[in-house]
Design brief:
The chain has 677 residues and is of the alpha/beta class. It folds into 3 domains: 252 residues, 2-enoyl-CoA Hydratase, Chain A, domain 1, CATH 3.90.226; 179 residues, Rossmann fold, CATH 3.40.50.720; 204 residues, N-(1-d-carboxylethyl)-l-norvaline Dehydrogenase, domain 2, CATH 1.10.1040. It is 48% helix and 11% strand. It is built from 27 helices and 17 strands. The chain has an 8-stranded mixed beta sheet with strand order 12-11-10-13-14-15-16-17, with helices on both faces. Strands 1-2-3-4-6-9 form a 6-stranded mixed beta sheet, with helices on both faces. The chain is globular and about 85 Å long. The chain binds 1,4-dihydronicotinamide adenine dinucleotide. The site of 1,4-dihydronicotinamide adenine dinucleotide has 24 residues, from α12, α13 and α15. Pathway: Lipid metabolism; fatty acid beta-oxidation.
């Protein structure tokens, strides 16, 4: 008998327990165990078979580590077909997260019972795949085409109540799955038509064309949502015996696709990112109360995120009026959560009572951690930490949210440097997933581990960064923008560059994005960097000239584009195109044509190059850290796997060539990473 699938037959009822920790994934041994169980149970002449999961969940999916390898027998669709076709009715008694292969198994059973709160879904789409064992073919037959498309093209989860409402369950129970299965088997209803033999309710003639248009728009270049739609269309138009093999073939083909490889890379990276070498042996310190200093744009968002994660928060502002304004900002975020149905009235009461606001630093005394988010000004930040240090315990953790300043300078003169850390949030801080956890040379492992722990509780992706100008994310951003400006000078327009990067999969191009967020911050940065910029480096001053002309972006109705009142659509502006050609002429540049591909190649090359330098210098430990920073902080398309993965996918030689072109075009302006030279 199999180790991972145990069969126990008593009183003609078979109990089939899947025990393959941690999530009972359908690896080869589980598949073989289930197939053997079908035969054994039939032979024994049982009346019913109950399949359930040991531990905290029913089957939560396939074994992703097998996806990179040739599939091993027996194949999952054959196993599930044997269950569906068995003369003995199978009852799935599920709990936990019943996802992918687990949901497919439940659909192949004659009956489905779920513990209250069980979550169901087909997450294959998020790995660039379609289900591989009949999920896309059985689900529309079980709950209808509309609901099946909704689940399969988004990967979203629904709970047992919702699935019951859609007609997908025969019962919901509380308590033990096996007990519930036994109770059901004791009074077994007549066996319904197999799910695979059911008819799909017809849809209108242009239904799928419309869905296609809708989903294509939403997918922004990712192909798996459309693949899932196509598979469901097979279910709606073909018999199961034809649709199922087509689904299986597509699943196998997609396993080798670049998009699925990229998405799987990100999946594994997200698990590895919280375990950098630098925190090995570190133990997180318990944090209950967090003091946030500065209740502006970032501070309010950080405070709100901390409240939602269950911390007590003390907000400190520079005077009573500013404190009131900060409190109002946080109250506004809570209100917004209520309006969108994300926060219940009861929860809102809790959040409000966990917040206190003050303009007196004495209020910080009880905090375990302080996060500073005041003006980006060294002297102001230094003064803040002096005041905090005067009131807080001398082992309380001190964190700065600075974007560009060197944390070592910020903490100068404060005692116990092992407790210093950077916690760099992204705007809006309660929404953006990325948290750069910045290590100073003095930061202790325990304090770093606490940063990662906090990130997890805030449901963020924490990425370790060392100190450099802009840390990982903004440093790559400024290389990217610098190269985009070189392209402007050499022959492109903002429109062309924006379009090329959108088509590549970025949510926005670099110029429309600057207009949206405002040109001032980057301007201030360039001024700050001027002192250390090598004299021989090529410098494009178009952005500075726009700022001098008070063109700060959408808020001033003009920036790289112009905007009509109340309209965010960027319109080309002759002022900008003339300025570009004038500046090029002044610099003696002969403008030429670039294809969209040239633009992508060059912009990606500098991103990859900067990422490689960052890893080379030890600012990031691994390429995957760089990938996750760009994906979770800057909208880099997940299905491209991040810049470093993308570079590997297109091949290092191509990147080298593009970087050589970039360097030749703008001599003395790029330091090329070791692996690209
Ligand atoms: P902001 O100007 O909206 O807020 C700053 C707040 O700090 C103001 O409410 C101000 O009253 C308060 N403040 C100033 N001096 C203070 C003092 N001595 N004690 C207490 N409160 C004081 O600025 P924002 O955008 O929230 O930025 C704050 C920090 O976060 C800066 O270091 C910035 O570089 C960093 N940051 C900003 C991001 C952004 O997208 N805006 C992203 C990531 C980091």
């Amino acid at each position: 008998m199999s180790d991972v699938v145990r069969v126990d037959i008593q009183d003609q009822v078979a109990r089939v327990e899947i025990n393959n920790p941690p999530v009972n994934a359908t690896g080869q041994a589980v598949r073989q165990g289930l197939l053997d169980a079908v035969a054994q149970i039939e032979q024994a002449g049982a009346n019913a078979a109950i399949v359930y999961g040991a531990g905290r969940t029913f089957v939560a999916g396939g074994d992703i580590s097998e996806f990179g390898k040739p599939p091993q027998l027996p194949h999952l669709p054959d196993v599930y077909q044997a269950i569906e076709d068995s003369s003995v009715p199978w009852i799935a008694a599920v709990h936990g997260t019943t996802l992918g292969g687990g949901f497919e198994l439940a659909m192949a059973c004659a009956f489905r019972l779920a513990q209250k709160g069980t979550r169901f879904g087909l997450p294959e789409v998020n790995l660039g795949l379609v289900p591989g064992a009949g999920g896309s073919q059985r689900l529309p037959r079980l709950i209808g085409v509309d609901a099946a498309i909704d689940l399969a093209t988004t990967g979203k989860m629904i709970d047992a109540d919702e699935l019951q409402e859609l007609g997908g369950l025969d019962g919901i129970f509380e308590g033990d799955p096996l007990e519930a299965g036994l109770a059901f088997a004791a009074d077994l209803p007549a066996r319904p038509t197999k799910v695979s033999a059911r008819d799909v309710a017809p849809v209108g003639s242009d239904y799928f064309a419309q869905k296609h248009a809708e989903i294509k728009k939403r997918a922004k270049g990712q192909s798996s949502p459309l693949d899932n739609l196509k598979a469901i269309e097979w279910a709606a138009t073909l018999p199961f015996t034809e649709g199922q093999p087509k689904e299986r073939q597509l699943h196998l083909d997609l396993r080798d696709s670049t998009q699925s490889q990229a998405l799987r890379h990100v999946f594994f990276a997200e698990r590895a990112v919280s375990k950098p070498k630098a925190i090995e042996g570190g133990t997180p310190i318990e944090i209950n109360t967090i003091c946030v200093v500065g209740g502006g744009l970032m501070g309010a968002g950080i405070a709100f995120a901390c409240l939602q994660a269950g911390y007590r928060v003390i907000l400190i502002e520079r005077d009573d009026d500013a404190a009131k304004a900060g409190q109002d900002r946080i109250a506004g975020l809570i209100e917004g959560g209520i309006k969108r149905g994300k926060i219940s009235d009861e929860k809102a009461v809790k959040l409000r009572s966990a917040l206190s606001v003050s303009s007196d630093y004495a209020a910080s005394a009880s905090a375990d951690l302080a996060i500073e988010a005041v003006f980006e000004d060294l002297a102001v930040k230094q003064a803040v930490f002096q005041s905090l240090a005067a009131h807080m315990r001398n082992d309380a953790i001190l964190a700065t949210n600075t974007s560009y300043l060197d944390p070592t300078d910020i903490f100068q003169g404060i005692q116990n440097p092992a407790r210093f850390i950077g916690l760099h949030f992204f705007s809006p801080a309660h929404i953006m997933k990325l948290l750069e956890i910045v290590k100073l040379p003095t930061t202790s492992k325990d304090v770093l581990a606490t940063g990662f722990d906090l990130g997890k509780r805030l449901r963020k992706v924490g990425v370790l960064s060392g100190i450099c100008d802009g840390f990982i994310g903004n440093r790559i951003l400024s290389a990217y923008r610098r190269q985009a400006d070189y392209l402007l000078m050499d022959g492109c327009t903002p429109r062309q560059i924006d379009r090329a990067m959108r088509d590549f999969g970025m949510p926005m191009g670099p110029y429309e994005l600057q207009d949206l967020t405002g040109l001032q911050i980057a301007w201030a940065n360039r001024k700050r960097q001027a002192a250390t910029r090598p004299a021989e480096e090529r410098y494009v001053r178009i952005g500075d000239l726009l700022c001098e002309a008070e063109r700060f972006g959408q808020r001033s109705q003009k920036g790289w584009y112009q905007y009509e009142e109340g309209d965010r659509t960027p319109q080309d502006d002759p002022f900008v195109t003339d300025l570009i050609t004038e500046e090029a002429a002044r610099a003696g540049v002969t403008r030429r044509d670039f294809t969209d591909q040239d633009i992508v190649d060059r912009l990606m090359a500098v991103m990859i190059n900067e990422g490689a330098l960052i890893v080379e210098e030890g600012v990031a430990e691994r390429d995957l850290d760089v990938d996750l920073v760009k994906i979770h902080g800057y909208g880099f398309p997940r299905w491209r796997g991040g810049p470093m993965h993308y570079g590997e996918q297109i091949g290092i030689d191509k990147v080298k060539q593009a970087m050589a072109d970039v360097a030749a075009q703008s001599p003395n302006s790029w330091r090329v990473a070791g692996r690209l030279s």
